[in-house]
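Re: weekly structure request thread

Next one in the queue (130 aa):
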Amino acid sequence: MVKYKKIRVQQDGEFQSEKILERLTELMEEEQLFQDVTLTIESLAERMSTNRTYVSKAVNENYAMSFRQWLNSYRIEKSIQYMLKNPAANQDEIAKASGFLSASAFNHKFKAVTGTSPRLWLVEKAVGAK
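Done, posted below.
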């Protein structure tokens, strides 16, 4: 069994959500876990040597959204960065690079978060930059 860095989620009886958030950020930024289409709150909690309740509580308290919403908003942010660096990328490339299972799932979530389609968003960015 692989050993992962254990985090201390309680100190003096107090829940330490900032410790969980630090580790979540580290896993997303450094290890790019958002790209794993099979990532669940359970698998992430196991990776962090904690439980899903603590991960959920930290995300809920700090971002006022569910873990799934947070993960998708994280993926959308990464897809935006990817599109800006790779404006000619197709939807499948963008979806894969940002952790979505398919281009249709990516398009659906992107529109839900931004209010527009990825292509229209990119065109609007290009026009606004001129």
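The beta strands are 10-11, 14-15. Residues 1-7 have pLDDT under 50 and may be disordered.
Next request, please.
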